Amino acid sequence: MKILAIESSCDEFSISIIDDGKILSNIISSQIEQHVNFGGVVPELAARLHLENISWVIKAALESSNTKIEEIDYVAYTEKPGLIGSLIIGKLVAETIASYIDKPLMPLHHIEGHIYGASIENEFIYPVLAMVVSGGHTQIEIINSPNDFKIIGATLDDAIGECYDKVARVMGLGYPGGPKIDKLAKEGNKDAFVFPIPKNDESYDFSYSGLKTAVINIIHNLTQKGETIPVADVAASFQYTATKIIEKKLEKAINEFKPKTLTVAGGVSANSEIRNIVLSLGEKYNISNTFVPKMEYCTDNAAMIAKLAYEKLKISN
Ligand code: ATP
Ligand code: MG
Ligand code: FE
């Protein structure tokens, strides 16, 4: 059974082909370079660039997987959430292909896709506890099947990825800031600055606006005094606090929900400290099925949508 999946919710246009659970191709056209000058993703530009990338991405996905379009049994695509102009393009491409080959369409959820990106290289044993850390989301989900996702805590203000990107922008590191801060943090002293950890211990919800403001204030104060900003120390102290928030909530959720699988998903799951935290919590609580996604499946990609589609179909037959 072959599925063609499309992901286009933000600034990546990606097509993947999966055959009985095995990823045959995962072509990603990224637009980072075109958005860098604006300090972030410009929605109108993202949609226009998707239009330019459709043809070659489809071709590359089919050719590199040695697949003819007629061999596809299902067409999956990201229905929501995301930038509307970007989403519409993915939906139209999916509908066009599905109607041409007369095969069913599967509209899927982007975040559920991120979660299944973690299961491409490792099988889930349910219930799964997934820490979702991405550009627009910070949430903990309990997954009982590919059709049963429970959000037990979510973003109250800024998402963790957004916070990384904004802090990086103020530090003059450019877009996207997450990977740059992660790298710099390794050279800095995490105890150089003490940033606040939100006190909402009884809840699983996440707040990052206080941390963002605290870091921005320090940078502005140092700049006003004419002092050079110790970027590596700021990055290390920020990363320590941003990931400590994740660790605390995740540990609480592990104790309450006693999952059989522990994992992390979304673009920020590429973060070295978050990967360490998840793996050490899995070890501490003896959750043998603990894993982090392969780097290629952390930020937006169509393979994760293909895998979600495959897992949904597997249990419907
Ligand atoms: P969402 O999935 O919530 O709709 P999105 O699709 O825009 O949002 P993703 O592509 O999942 O977001 O993730 C992009 C985010 O991941 C960016 O904020 C980027 O800075 C962040 N990121 C990538 N690598 C790292 C890293 N090593 N450390 C921290 N953040 C990272
Ligand atoms: Mg992106
Ligand atoms: Fe995403």
Automatic annotation (TrEMBL):
Alphabetically ordered keywords of this record: Acyltransferase, Cytoplasm, Iron, Metal-binding, Transferase, tRNA processing
Domain Gcp-like, residue spans: 22-307
Localization per Swiss-Prot or TrEMBL: Cytoplasm
An annotated Gene Ontology molecular function: iron ion binding
Pfam families: TsaD
Entry EC no(s): 2.3.1.234
Catalytic activity: L-threonylcarbamoyladenylate + adenosine(37) in tRNA = N(6)-L-threonylcarbamoyladenosine(37) in tRNA + AMP + H(+)
Function: Required for the formation of a threonylcarbamoyl group on adenosine at position 37 (t(6)A37) in tRNAs that read codons beginning with adenine. Is involved in the transfer of the threonylcarbamoyl moiety of threonylcarbamoyl-AMP (TC-AMP) to the N6 group of A37, together with TsaE and TsaB. TsaD likely plays a direct catalytic role in this reaction.
Protein name: tRNA N6-adenosine threonylcarbamoyltransferase
